[in-house]
Design goal:
Helices cover 57% and strands 11% of the residues. With 255 residues, the protein is α+β, with helices and mostly antiparallel strands. It has 2 domains: 1-54; 67-254, Glutaredoxin (3-Layer(aba) Sandwich), CATH 3.40.30. A 6-stranded mixed beta sheet has the order 1-2-4-3-5-6.
Amino acid sequence: MSGRQDREARREERLREDEQAGASERRQQMIKIASAVAFLAVAAVVVLIVISQNQSSGGDSSDLEGISEVKQELSGIPQNGMVLGDPKAKVTVLEFADLQCPVCKGYSEEVIPQVIENQVRGGEAKLSFRNFTIIDEQSIPAGAAAIAAGKQGRGWNFVELFFRNQGLERSGYVTDEFLTAIAKGAGVTDIARWNRDRGSKAVLSEVSASTAEAEKLGFTGTPSFALDGPATDGTAAMGTPDSAAVLEEGIEAAG
């Protein structure tokens, strides 16, 4: 082997060694990154557990939150029963929800307000709240209480205020005291009438009927949405949109 070939061979050997060293270093870096990600994931779970353990065990009827915010959000928008918006709006958005559902609470705070402010207030769509009672037996009186509030033009105020003061799921917070506080905070003026209505056979049957309607549409979770408009063939199931923008696009398509 000539001197030149020998030098070339040694150079190639050094390059291979450097490449192997670099690959080893990269593997170590990836292991460190993966370990860090795993640590953060575990830390996030721990944080969620701590937060969950430190949450209140139920709604606080003596200290309601969000009364003025809900009133401002819905101010000036017509309400008829559990329907919010101009009765002449071309598109109806049906929201099937359980008042005890924490995901429904999230939608009421992050998704629904944008739709209310834009397409409902603008007269393009109206929102119809339908009870889909899937959590436990307390969801039925909660849903009936909302419908009873709707008979006094405060159905959506009741729903939105309930969500803002929702307690932990299945914690037993849905008491007469809690429901009455929500009704008063929502602006229900005739509490005696509200009490009669929420216990009536007709209102309780309405809760059952809307739950059956959701099941007929094929829904299995809450919240689930359906649309009814000029461009739909009857009531069209939409499912659970992952953002306000997706829901708004559906409304536009249905009109």
